Amino acid sequence: MGIVTAEHLYHILWAANTYSHSSDPAAEINNYLVANRQLTPNIREDSGQPDAWRDYQQILSELGLTYSLEVLTQIKLTPLGLALLDGLLGFSEVMALQALRFQYPNGHHVAFGPTQADDLLGSPFGAVSSNVELQNLSGIRLRPAVLVWRVLRGLATRGQADRLTTDDIERYLMPCATHSDTEACIDAIVSVRSGGLALPGQGQRQRRNAQDWIKFLRLTPIFEAPEVTDPALRISSFGLEHADEIDRMCDALERPETFWEPASPLTQADRLRWYSEFGVVDLSLPELPGPELPPLIQSNEYVAGREEEEDADEGYVPAEAHIINLTAFDFGPAPPQVAAPGTADTIESVYRAELTTSQHRLHDQLVLLIGRTCRAKGADVYEDPNSVDLLVHFRATEFIIEVKSVTPKNFIARLRYALGQVLHYDYLRSAQAEEPRRKVIALAAKLPNTSWSIPFVRDYLDMDLLSLEAGALRLHSRSSVASQLFA
């Protein structure tokens, strides 16, 4: 992570998305990265060919921007990865959110070596087969970046230097198992700084891991490590300015119900769920606080430009604003990888090659997922590029569906815009069809159960609300017909 910039990350993600379904995606991605001087070629000794993709692709799955190739055989971007490509979220926003959200145990770090297995022989954990199972059974529930933030804040409160060295992280933070250990961790650091006995180091591997965490966290706008020879992690001026807001984010992330809970033993389906949950735009958390990031950060946030806010007049040509012109929805060719028989489609199981060059990839992938879901139920699916995203006929009922890619910052504005659109489309369809109609708002994000928008849309407005849950559609509705179509 130490060499990764916003430009590097964008281009490796763009190449992964663009060449994901070519006959030799690794070769295509390597050629792109080398030709555009994004990463070093990393020439392999056995073949003499560059293989930057092999060495750097794990960055994408580590950050939840793609699914691991150990879980899905083809390269697939998560909703968060699509949001970064679209300019819906910026580099620093993604880094900060994913650093704070990252947890142990997780579905990415599962490797369990023979040395670990030997160490555990004769212990209550002697039969475990993965790091995830070991961490789960031993009660580990920890978000390391949240712990770092809490410890730095606690040290400042006690009048201590608010900085953490590699030694501090290795000796005092790494032994923590849950967030209830935070105060004991601060106590130990204060004690050793006051001349108390230091805890022993854990070894060179753990020290390297601590260094890696510093490299990672310094890429977020809320931490910094300005020293070059012996970097120590501190809260940045931006983090200090918005400390109360970040404290509230950490409050939410420490709640037990926000943690990914693995199965035991761990399954591939459970690992898939990790990437689907960690790689979703999550409306239960605010984005980085403040209206804008600092100018120096902001200038590097959006490599291909920021997604423009939707204009109030977007979509209709004024002379045609009196009618909806429906055509059969274009599903494109069947995706190479489809859901197993008897299971619902998910956002990672739909694919259409031309969407890789779209400026609204996340929006279009959700439209495709909804269309495929409706078609699988026997519904007729239509679209109008100049107005409605989808119009679906199902059991003598029309469904007008408006899809929005949203973030916590633009959620209210885009929800209001979507409501105005479906009301307008409903009025226009009333002159064309007499069937009863349901108005549907679909959000390309995870919606918390406590969101005010659910009773507002479902109960107060008697409309249907769709969101993403572990990559699949989730419905909030009072309509039995809607439940039959979407659930």
Protein model, in words:
The chain has 3 domains: 1-103 and 260-308, no CATH class; 141-257, Arc Repressor Mutant, subunit A, CATH 1.10.10; 322-486, Restriction Endonuclease (3-Layer(aba) Sandwich), CATH 3.40.91. The protein is 40% helix and 8% strand. The protein has 20 helices and 9 strands. The strands form 2 sheets. The chain has a 7-stranded mixed β-sheet, sandwiched between helices. The longest helix is centred in the last third of the chain and has 20 residues, at 411-430. Mean pLDDT is 87; it is low at 315-319.
Class inferred from helices and paired strands: alpha+beta
Average pLDDT, rounded to a whole number, is 87
What is the CATH C level class of the largest domain, in words? Alpha Beta
Give the % helix: 40-55%
> For the terminal residues, how far apart are their CA atoms?
40 Å
Name the CATH architecture of the largest domain.
Answer: 3-Layer(aba) Sandwich
Kindly state the number of beta strands.
9
Secondary-structure element order, N to C: HHHHHHHHHHHHEEHHHHEHEEEHEHEEH
Instruction: Give the count of helical stretches.
Output: 20
Give the low-confidence spans.
315-319
Radius of gyration computed on alpha carbons: 24 Å
Number of domains: 3
At the fold tier of CATH, the topology name of the largest domain is Restriction Endonuclease
Strand order of the largest sheet: 3-4-5-6-7-8-9
What share of residues are in beta strands? Answer: 5-15%
The coarse overall form would be: globular
Largest sheet: 7 strands, mixed
